[in-house]
Amino acid sequence: MDKIKDITAEINYKYPYERFTVSFQATKSEKMDKVHAMQVFVRVAELQSFTRAAESLGLPKGSLSRQIQALENTMGVRLLHRTTRRVQLTQDGLVYYDRCRDVLATLEEMDSLFQHDPATLSGRLRVDMPVSMASDFILPQLPAFLQQYPGIELELSSSDRRVDVVREGFDCVIRVGTLADSGLIARPLGSLTLVNCASPDYLARFGTPTSLDDLAQHAMVHYSQQLGAPSSGFEFFDGKICRYVKTGGAVTVNSTETYRAACLAGLGIIQAPECGARAALKEKTLVEILPQFRAEPMPVSLLYPHRRNLARRVQVFMEWLTQAMKRYVA
């Protein structure tokens, strides 16, 4: 009880807004209802949508709306601006949102303060990573993690689009390539070695290029997250900077899985992570070409929102991800 009082005093000291003062004097049921309402409010605020928040929490949309309305009535302020298209925080909502995140993180940390048994670790994790990384690297190792932590539920998003980590409520994401300034915390995991590949059928039809000049007579499978964007061509790193060679190619894709499948179908040359192409190279369904002209290795990063107190399950999962990726990155 003294520990709770100390934490309460610390929270109220950091945020001296009288109407937001935290109290632990309510009954147990009232406290639990208030905590749940705070969790609902945070999810709605981050997703900017009652519908998406309801789906992520597995609750009826009407239930969320009633809880937020009751919370606003209790606080005596409007926390959210609601329109037909989106939901936004008011100025009071912004203050309350920051308070809620700190309080919920503190309570969550207290729940597991003296628990070191993996079986006691529980809760939901929402993670995003590229499709090929999930299928080739992470999913084969995931059963061992879930066996060690049976109380954890994982929501794994796999797509090649850049998700909005905060707005869509992700705990962490893996991203490949140069990072933009997003305000997220980034943990470098290493880099992926890229290889130039083509199928035996493609090489039988068009020949094997042995120099950069030969590429003028060859086709690449072009990859672009935004279809319609011009292709840079064949990339290679000369030891100082990246250079590009113009090539042909009639197919452009926006999925890493389709990118590899197009190469296997003989539609052109690709530049892909060596660890992902390793099995196909060993089975000779893909052949490495121009090994002296590889593209610059691609950095791999683990990103997560800035929080004072990350939930222990998030910390544990991020540490596991870091270890899981070590066999694939340089």
Structural notes for this entry:
The chain has 330 residues and is an alpha/beta fold. The chain folds into three domains: 2-111, Orthogonal Bundle (Arc Repressor Mutant, subunit A); 118-192 and 299-325, Periplasmic binding protein-like II (D-Maltodextrin-Binding Protein, domain 2, 3-Layer(aba) Sandwich), CATH 3.40.190.10; 194-296, D-Maltodextrin-Binding Protein, domain 2. Helix content is 40%, strand content 20%. It has helices at residues 2-14, 28-47, 50-57, 61-75, 91-111, 131-138, 142-148, 200-206, 256-264, 274-283, 312-325; strands spanning 80-82, 87-89, 122-129, 151-158, 172-176, 185-192, 194-198, 222-223, 234-237, 242-245, 252-253, 270-273, 287-288, 298-304. It has a five-stranded mixed β-sheet with strand order 4-3-5-14-6. The protein has a three-stranded antiparallel β-sheet with strand order 12-7-13. It has a two-stranded antiparallel ribbon with strand order 1-2. Helix 2 crosses helix 4 (61-75). It is elongated, with a radius of gyration of 25 Å. The two termini are 48 Å apart.
Q: Rounded to an integer, what's the Rg over CA atoms?
A: 25 Å
Structural class: alpha/beta
The CATH class of the largest domain turns out to be: Mainly Alpha
Helix content: 40-55%
> Biggest sheet, strands in spatial order?
4-3-5-14-6
The percentage of residues in β strands lies in 15-25%
**CATH-scheme architecture of the largest domain:** Orthogonal Bundle
